[in-house]
Write a structure and sequence with these properties.
The structure is a single chain. The protein has 223 residues and is an all-alpha fold. It has a domain of 63 residues. The chain has 11 helices and no strands. It starts with a helix and ends with a helix.
Protein backbone atom coordinates (compact mmCIF):
# COMPACT_ATOMS: atom_id res chain seq x y z
CA UNK A 1 0.00 0.00 0.00
CA UNK A 2 2.90 2.36 0.61
CA UNK A 3 3.83 2.29 -3.06
CA UNK A 4 0.23 3.18 -3.97
CA UNK A 5 0.18 6.09 -1.53
CA UNK A 6 3.57 7.35 -2.73
CA UNK A 7 2.43 7.22 -6.36
CA UNK A 8 -0.77 9.15 -5.59
CA UNK A 9 0.92 11.72 -3.34
CA UNK A 10 3.45 12.77 -5.97
CA UNK A 11 4.97 16.11 -5.11
CA UNK A 12 4.07 15.70 -1.44
CA UNK A 13 6.62 13.18 -0.12
CA UNK A 14 6.58 14.72 3.35
CA UNK A 15 2.91 13.83 3.73
CA UNK A 16 3.16 10.13 2.89
CA UNK A 17 3.81 8.91 6.44
CA UNK A 18 0.99 11.04 7.84
CA UNK A 19 -1.43 9.64 5.26
CA UNK A 20 -0.30 6.07 5.98
CA UNK A 21 -0.93 6.64 9.68
CA UNK A 22 -4.38 8.01 8.89
CA UNK A 23 -5.06 4.90 6.81
CA UNK A 24 -4.01 2.66 9.71
CA UNK A 25 -6.32 4.54 12.07
CA UNK A 26 -9.21 4.28 9.62
CA UNK A 27 -8.66 0.56 9.04
CA UNK A 28 -8.67 -0.13 12.77
CA UNK A 29 -11.68 2.09 13.38
CA UNK A 30 -13.67 0.36 10.63
CA UNK A 31 -12.39 -3.19 11.14
CA UNK A 32 -15.72 -4.29 12.62
CA UNK A 33 -17.46 -3.39 9.34
CA UNK A 34 -15.44 -5.89 7.31
CA UNK A 35 -17.70 -8.43 5.61
CA UNK A 36 -15.90 -11.47 4.12
CA UNK A 37 -18.85 -11.97 1.81
CA UNK A 38 -18.09 -8.69 0.06
CA UNK A 39 -14.43 -9.34 -0.66
CA UNK A 40 -11.04 -10.21 0.75
CA UNK A 41 -9.22 -8.21 3.44
CA UNK A 42 -7.05 -6.92 0.61
CA UNK A 43 -10.00 -5.24 -1.09
CA UNK A 44 -11.27 -3.92 2.24
CA UNK A 45 -7.96 -2.25 3.11
CA UNK A 46 -7.36 -1.05 -0.44
CA UNK A 47 -10.81 0.54 -0.58
CA UNK A 48 -10.12 2.45 2.61
CA UNK A 49 -6.65 3.41 1.38
CA UNK A 50 -7.97 4.78 -1.90
CA UNK A 51 -10.74 6.69 -0.14
CA UNK A 52 -8.36 8.26 2.41
CA UNK A 53 -5.84 9.27 -0.26
CA UNK A 54 -8.51 10.82 -2.49
CA UNK A 55 -10.01 12.65 0.47
CA UNK A 56 -6.63 14.06 1.47
CA UNK A 57 -5.86 15.16 -2.08
CA UNK A 58 -9.27 16.80 -2.50
CA UNK A 59 -9.02 18.46 0.89
CA UNK A 60 -5.76 20.15 -0.02
CA UNK A 61 -6.67 21.06 -3.58
CA UNK A 62 -8.08 24.60 -3.66
CA UNK A 63 -8.76 26.12 -7.09
CA UNK A 64 -8.30 29.72 -5.97
CA UNK A 65 -9.54 31.29 -9.19
CA UNK A 66 -12.92 29.61 -8.78
CA UNK A 67 -13.60 30.82 -5.23
CA UNK A 68 -15.62 34.05 -4.87
CA UNK A 69 -14.55 36.46 -2.18
CA UNK A 70 -17.82 36.04 -0.28
CA UNK A 71 -17.83 32.24 -0.44
CA UNK A 72 -19.24 30.43 2.57
CA UNK A 73 -18.85 26.82 3.55
CA UNK A 74 -21.91 24.68 2.87
CA UNK A 75 -20.40 21.50 4.26
CA UNK A 76 -22.72 19.52 6.50
CA UNK A 77 -19.73 18.36 8.55
CA UNK A 78 -19.20 20.43 11.68
CA UNK A 79 -15.46 21.23 11.82
CA UNK A 80 -15.51 20.95 15.61
CA UNK A 81 -17.16 17.52 15.43
CA UNK A 82 -14.57 16.44 12.89
CA UNK A 83 -11.74 17.61 15.14
CA UNK A 84 -13.25 15.83 18.13
CA UNK A 85 -13.63 12.59 16.17
CA UNK A 86 -10.04 12.84 14.96
CA UNK A 87 -8.82 13.53 18.50
CA UNK A 88 -10.82 10.61 19.91
CA UNK A 89 -9.43 8.25 17.28
CA UNK A 90 -5.89 9.43 17.98
CA UNK A 91 -6.39 9.10 21.74
CA UNK A 92 -7.67 5.55 21.33
CA UNK A 93 -4.85 4.56 18.98
CA UNK A 94 -2.15 5.96 21.26
CA UNK A 95 -3.50 4.18 24.34
CA UNK A 96 -4.03 0.91 22.49
CA UNK A 97 -0.51 1.06 21.07
CA UNK A 98 0.93 1.69 24.54
CA UNK A 99 -0.77 -1.37 26.02
CA UNK A 100 -0.19 -3.61 23.01
CA UNK A 101 3.50 -2.84 22.85
CA UNK A 102 5.63 -1.73 19.89
CA UNK A 103 6.31 -5.23 18.57
CA UNK A 104 2.70 -6.38 18.21
CA UNK A 105 1.59 -2.93 17.05
CA UNK A 106 4.22 -2.89 14.31
CA UNK A 107 3.14 -6.33 13.12
CA UNK A 108 -0.51 -5.29 12.91
CA UNK A 109 0.32 -1.99 11.26
CA UNK A 110 2.24 -3.77 8.52
CA UNK A 111 -0.44 -6.43 8.20
CA UNK A 112 -3.13 -3.80 7.66
CA UNK A 113 -1.13 -2.39 4.74
CA UNK A 114 0.01 -5.70 3.27
CA UNK A 115 -2.78 -6.30 0.75
CA UNK A 116 -3.92 -9.19 2.94
CA UNK A 117 -0.61 -11.01 2.45
CA UNK A 118 -0.49 -12.54 5.92
CA UNK A 119 2.09 -15.13 4.90
CA UNK A 120 4.58 -12.45 3.88
CA UNK A 121 4.12 -10.58 7.16
CA UNK A 122 4.47 -13.81 9.14
CA UNK A 123 7.69 -14.63 7.32
CA UNK A 124 9.01 -11.09 7.72
CA UNK A 125 8.53 -11.22 11.49
CA UNK A 126 9.49 -14.90 11.75
CA UNK A 127 6.05 -15.90 12.99
CA UNK A 128 3.96 -18.94 12.21
CA UNK A 129 0.48 -18.28 10.84
CA UNK A 130 -0.87 -19.34 14.21
CA UNK A 131 1.50 -16.91 15.90
CA UNK A 132 0.31 -14.11 13.63
CA UNK A 133 -3.32 -14.89 14.48
CA UNK A 134 -2.38 -14.80 18.16
CA UNK A 135 -0.84 -11.34 17.76
CA UNK A 136 -3.93 -10.13 15.92
CA UNK A 137 -6.20 -11.47 18.65
CA UNK A 138 -4.11 -9.85 21.40
CA UNK A 139 -4.27 -6.49 19.66
CA UNK A 140 -8.01 -6.82 19.07
CA UNK A 141 -8.68 -7.62 22.73
CA UNK A 142 -6.68 -4.64 23.96
CA UNK A 143 -8.10 -2.24 21.36
CA UNK A 144 -11.68 -3.18 22.22
CA UNK A 145 -11.02 -2.85 25.95
CA UNK A 146 -9.42 0.58 25.58
CA UNK A 147 -12.23 1.79 23.33
CA UNK A 148 -14.89 0.62 25.79
CA UNK A 149 -13.05 2.22 28.72
CA UNK A 150 -12.76 5.54 26.88
CA UNK A 151 -16.47 5.43 26.05
CA UNK A 152 -17.30 4.76 29.70
CA UNK A 153 -15.05 7.61 30.83
CA UNK A 154 -16.56 10.01 28.30
CA UNK A 155 -20.01 9.02 29.54
CA UNK A 156 -18.96 10.01 33.06
CA UNK A 157 -19.41 6.54 34.51
CA UNK A 158 -17.77 5.93 37.89
CA UNK A 159 -14.78 3.66 38.28
CA UNK A 160 -16.60 0.69 39.78
CA UNK A 161 -16.12 -3.02 39.44
CA UNK A 162 -19.15 -3.41 37.20
CA UNK A 163 -18.05 -0.62 34.86
CA UNK A 164 -14.53 -2.03 34.64
CA UNK A 165 -15.96 -5.48 33.93
CA UNK A 166 -18.20 -4.12 31.18
CA UNK A 167 -15.11 -2.88 29.32
CA UNK A 168 -13.75 -6.40 28.87
CA UNK A 169 -14.86 -7.77 25.48
CA UNK A 170 -17.40 -10.57 25.47
CA UNK A 171 -15.83 -12.18 22.42
CA UNK A 172 -13.50 -15.00 23.31
CA UNK A 173 -15.31 -15.47 26.60
CA UNK A 174 -13.00 -13.11 28.46
CA UNK A 175 -15.76 -11.17 30.18
CA UNK A 176 -17.22 -14.44 31.40
CA UNK A 177 -13.82 -15.40 32.78
CA UNK A 178 -13.40 -11.94 34.32
CA UNK A 179 -16.69 -12.42 36.14
CA UNK A 180 -15.28 -15.59 37.71
CA UNK A 181 -11.99 -14.05 38.83
CA UNK A 182 -11.51 -15.22 42.39
CA UNK A 183 -12.61 -18.77 41.70
CA UNK A 184 -9.89 -21.38 41.47
CA UNK A 185 -8.58 -22.50 38.10
CA UNK A 186 -10.17 -25.95 38.19
CA UNK A 187 -13.60 -24.49 38.94
CA UNK A 188 -13.33 -22.08 36.01
CA UNK A 189 -12.06 -24.85 33.74
CA UNK A 190 -15.00 -27.07 34.70
CA UNK A 191 -17.53 -24.30 34.08
CA UNK A 192 -16.06 -23.51 30.67
CA UNK A 193 -15.42 -27.16 29.81
CA UNK A 194 -11.78 -26.49 28.98
CA UNK A 195 -8.41 -27.80 30.14
CA UNK A 196 -7.01 -26.18 33.31
CA UNK A 197 -4.01 -25.00 31.29
CA UNK A 198 -6.30 -23.15 28.89
CA UNK A 199 -8.21 -21.77 31.85
CA UNK A 200 -5.02 -20.36 33.34
CA UNK A 201 -4.19 -18.62 30.06
CA UNK A 202 -7.67 -17.11 29.83
CA UNK A 203 -7.55 -15.99 33.46
CA UNK A 204 -4.23 -14.24 32.84
CA UNK A 205 -5.65 -12.47 29.78
CA UNK A 206 -8.84 -11.48 31.60
CA UNK A 207 -6.82 -10.04 34.49
CA UNK A 208 -4.70 -8.02 32.09
CA UNK A 209 -7.76 -6.63 30.30
CA UNK A 210 -9.32 -5.71 33.65
CA UNK A 211 -6.10 -3.92 34.60
CA UNK A 212 -6.07 -2.02 31.31
CA UNK A 213 -9.72 -1.00 31.69
CA UNK A 214 -9.17 0.17 35.27
CA UNK A 215 -6.04 2.14 34.36
CA UNK A 216 -7.68 3.89 31.41
CA UNK A 217 -10.75 4.75 33.46
CA UNK A 218 -8.69 6.09 36.36
CA UNK A 219 -6.64 8.21 33.97
CA UNK A 220 -9.60 9.55 32.02
CA UNK A 221 -12.34 9.99 34.64
CA UNK A 222 -12.00 13.33 36.49
CA UNK A 223 -11.21 12.95 40.17
Amino acid sequence: MRSFVVSRMRGRPNEVDAVLQLIRETVWRRSDTYDPGRGSPNYFVFGITRHVVLRELERKYVPVDDIPFDAESHSEVDPLDALICRFDAHRWMVLAADYVGPSDWRVMGDLSLSDGDAQRIAAEYQLSMRGLRTVRERVRQVAQTVLAALAAADAGLPVTGSVILSCVPESGGFREVAEMIGDDTNTIAARLHIHPGSARARIATAKRLLMIARTVLEQEVPA
